[in-house]
Every structure is written in C-alpha cells, then in structure tokens.
Amino acid sequence: MTEHTTERTAGNTAPQNPEIPLSQGILLSQEIPQDPETDPDENRRQVLYWRLLARLFDQEEQGTLESASLAVVEEIGLPSALLDPQVSVDSIVQRHPELAAEFDGLMAPAPDPDGDGTRDRTAEVRRAALVSKVLLNVFASGSGTVTAGQLARWQSDAGWLERALGCKPGELRGGRAGGRAAGPGVSPTGTGGGGTNPDLSRLIPAIGPELGSIEAELVKRMRLREVLADPKLAAQLTPSMSLIEQLLRDKNNLSGVALANAKDLIRRFVDEVAEVLRTQVEKATVGALDRSVPPKRVFRNLDLDRTIWKNLTNWSPEEERLYVDRLYYRHTVRKTTPQRLIVVVDQSGSMVDSMVNCTILASIFAGLPKVDVHLIAYDTQALDLTPWVHDPFETLLRTNLGGGTDGTVAMALAQPKIAEPRNTVVVWISDFYEWQTEPLFESMAAIHRSGARFIPVGSVTSSGRGSVNPWFRERFKDLGTPVLSGHIRKLVHELKTFLA
C-alpha cells in the first residue's frame, strides 16, 4: 500500500497554474487527474460529479471539492443551497420557482434539436449541478434515528428524482398516481418530466427497488409508534409501501390515536393504489358484443356514420337535403359468462407488496359484473377473506404478515371453490419457498389438468422485484404454466384476457 502511494505521488509532479480559477478543477487535488487541454466547462462538470461521489461514499466534507463546487454553482447562476444536503428540493423550488421546469425530465433522454450531435457544455454543467442535488438528497440518507419530517422530506426528494426520470412521483416506488405534499411548499406532484420517457428496465441496478429499500430502511429507523401517537407528526407522513408494511406488522401493538392515524394512512394508500389499478383494469372492455340483444335506442348509442351511409339513397340534389327514414344504433351489450376468480396470496413477510396490490386488485375485479371473486391469505394457516373482498382496507387489517409458508392449508380452502373448472381462474401469488413442495405442486397440477386456468405469480409488485423458488419455476414451466413475475400490469393483462 505504501509503495503504491509513493509511486502515485511521484507521478503527479506536473506544475499547476495558480491563475486558473479554482472552479475549473485544476487546483482540486493530486487525486483528480487533470488535462490542461480540457474545456473549462468539462472541468466544472467533473468537479460537481467528483463532489457527488465523495459525499455519497463519505459523509465528511472534502474542503477543496466543496469550495470548487460552490464557485461553479455561483458562476452558472444557481443558488448555493443546491450544495446543502439538508435543504430539500421542495425548499429550493419554493424559493426559485423557475427551477421546477428544469428538474422535470432532467435525467430523461432529450432529442437533439439540431441533429448534429453537438453538445452544449454550459448547459451540461448546469444539468450536473441539478442532478447532483437530486441524487445526493435521495441516496445519502445518513444514519441514526429518523423523524417524521425527515422521512417526509426524503419522500418528497424521491418524488423529484422520479420526476427527473420522466415519471410521476411515487410511480417507481409504489405504482401510485402521485405523491402528496408533505407540508408547506412546492409539492412534487404533476405529470412528470417532459421529453422521452426513459427505458427504466435498462437502469443498473433497477432504481425502483433500490428506492423502496432506502425508504424501508428509513421507516425502520423511525420511532413509528411515537410519531403515530402525535397527530401533528402523523400528519407529516406520506403513505408508501414501506410505511404500510411497518403499519401492518405493528397494528396489533397500536391503540387509540396511534391506531386511528395508522388506519388513516393505510386507507389513503389503498385509495391511491386502487385509483391506478382501476385505470389499468378499465383500459380494456371485458366480453364480446352480444348482437342477439337489440341495441338500446338512445342518443349516446346512435351510429351516425352508419345512419348517413344507409340513407344516402334518400339524398335530394334539388333540395340538398338527406332524408332519413331509419336510424341505426350501436350494440353495447356484451356477452358475459359468470367467471370465478380465486386469488391465493402468501402473506409471509417477503410478500407484503404483493399482498397489498393483490388485495386491492381482487376488490376491483369483484366490482365487475358477473365476476365472483374469492380471496385466501395464508402462511402456516389459511384465512378466507372473501367476505371482505370488496373492501381492501378491511381485508388488509385482517392479515397477519410474517411466519412460515405452508401452501397446502390454502389449497384445502381453494379446491372446494372450483365448481366449474372451465369458468374458473386460480391466481396463486407466492415466492413458492414451501415446506411441502411435492404435495402442493401435485395439487396445483391437478387444478391445471381439470381445465381451470392456473396462474402462478412470483411477484406482482409495482417495481417487479421478487424471487421464486427455482424448483417450482422449472416444474411450472414444464407444466405449461410459467411463473408470472414482474410488474402488476402483467397480471392485470392475464386476468382481462381470461375474463374477455
């Protein structure tokens, strides 16, 4: 180690020019390689990114980098508060509203306006300063106890990062329509950034699960019971998947004001996710048109184009009028066969995201005409939640996250519900790390052979993160029912296809 350091120091003996501004990165340190022919704007950009890396991996300030970065920010006309990790993006945008548009879509790819591939170096420096602010606030989460205000500020900054990526606040972490303001100031709500949406599947690592992990860690470091017992502090909390998981785990230890505040947070989150999922379900109509039923003769069903076409023979050239002797209407009634949807959800601790999403999804499908939905949750015991399937809030309150996994107890409840296999779909959501693998798989294969649609699901999270027992994955593949893993949109598509 000593020899390597000596060689490195000896190799950096090139004289430095004291007249060159500090912000150009020339006088930073022997540890940063310099090229005298490098464009000054390129040096400024490197200064900002070197500072970002230093602060992400070491909480101690590097004096030289801080001074150089401050000089850069002041030279390009940005507020020095961008360099303070204690200042939220909300606060900066509140003081400087013109920056809100620059944060939107900041990290999303933008088309080249000139098409010649030239780079605006000055604009890149400004972009580096804004990007550094967002990344540092989100990924340098610190250590120690977290207050409700700090969690709310982090959630707000994470919303700005999602906007910078061209998404809606909360979309990458929990699939919600948008975040709620955590207090006074400018809230990161809106439609997301401009420009082209990035292909988030190519981010390495996938940023959605990483954001969720950071948020979960912050929630664990927060004295949640004390916060919930104080209405003012509880009001600062923004519902998220990580927070809901902790609330569901700890709900039996809460009472009074704390329990009421916890229920309010759960219901708000359920409503937000339900809004998103309901939109996905309603994007495609269910069932084919039933032309045996005469169309209802009301104005909204009038087929104007067909009416004109069919009456063209009544056109009077002399009067320049079209006489209509028959009106034509669109068929709107759809063929619907009663379908039974049986959803079985593993409620062990690792499946909380799936539990929340599928409980809400089951309630949405339960609201569709002629769809009979049954919901079963299990760990080492099974619980039939069908009586509460229309109310995901009440359903979640009756779950008990954690424990082992024994799918045979859930199978004992599910099999008697399959009365007409051809009109039944069984959705089984689990990571399939089971105690009794062979008996459970044989029961699942029997459901598939009976003619019922069996859909094994390994992950229906908003981010698509999850793992599946390889033993089950291979056997499901051989059975012709491969495990469905990924975004919850995939499950919505499968269910709509079956019910169509």
What features would you describe in this structure?
A hairpin with a 4-residue loop joins strand 1 (315-316) and strand 2. Residues 1-34, 175-198 and 200-205 have low confidence and may be disordered. The protein has 500 residues and is an alpha/beta fold. It folds into 3 domains: 41-108 and 122-176 and 200-275, no CATH class; 288-335, no CATH class; 339-499, von Willebrand factor, type A domain (Rossmann fold, 3-Layer(aba) Sandwich), CATH 3.40.50.410. It contains 20 helices and 8 strands. It comes from Streptomyces atratus. This is VWA domain containing CoxE-like protein. Residues 1-24, 172-197 are annotated as: Disordered.
User: Helix and strand string, N-terminal first?
Assistant: HHHHHHHHHHHHHHEEEHEEHHEHEHEH
- Say how many strands there are: 8
Sequence of strands across the biggest β-sheet: 5-4-3-6-7-8
What's the structural domain tally?
3
Name the assembly state: single chain
Portion in strands? 5-15%
How many helix segments? 20
Characteristic terms for this protein:
vWFA_dom_sf; alpha/beta; two-stranded antiparallel ribbon; 3 domains; disordered N terminus; Rossmann fold; 20 helices
Task: Write the SSE topology.
Layout: H1 2-10, H2 40-57, H3 63-75, H4 89-95, H5 100-103, H6 121-139, H7 148-164, H8 171-174, H9 207-220, H10 224-229, H11 231-234, H12 241-250, H13 256-282, H14 304-310, E1 315-316, E2 321-322, E3 339-346, H15 352-366, E4 371-378, E5 382-384, H16 392-397, H17 407-414, E6 424-429, H18 437-449, E7 453-461, H19 470-479, E8 484-487, H20 488-499
Parallel strand pairs: 3-4, 3-6, 6-7, 7-8
Antiparallel strand pairs: 1-2, 4-5
Helix pairs in contact: 2-3, 2-6, 6-7, 7-9, 9-12, 13-15, 18-19
